[in-house]
Amino acid sequence: MRELLTELRQSNRPLWLSLRAALRKLRDRKNHGEPLTKDVGDDLLEVRAPGARILFFFRPCQLIVLLGGFQKKTDKLPAKQRSRAIRLRSAYLAGFANPERCTGDELFIDEQF
User: Fold this and answer.
1) Is the dihedral of CA 77, 21, 113, 28 positive or negative?
2) Is-above-0.85 flag for pTM?
3) Distance, CA of 62 to CA of 26 (rounded, Å)
């Protein structure tokens, strides 16, 4: 995720600024619905910016887990991106004895966007 944002910061600053603003709104709970975010099924949501998407899910305690992002040319979520996000979500949650409970034992919190 960090790599995508770093690359966009250098290669497409307007898109990077748009994604950064969207992530900050999400973090600050200013908008958790459309058009900023959209439920894409399988307990996944996407942050929407013109030309790009970031897939994420919510953990208890209002933690937002970013799973990955990609530049997008159509409105349809590519199957490859969906399956990758589902795999990453499962791997992340496998590290918790009770993934539906707020444990406070997240490995790290990174808000550098």
Assistant:
1) negative
2) no
3) 11
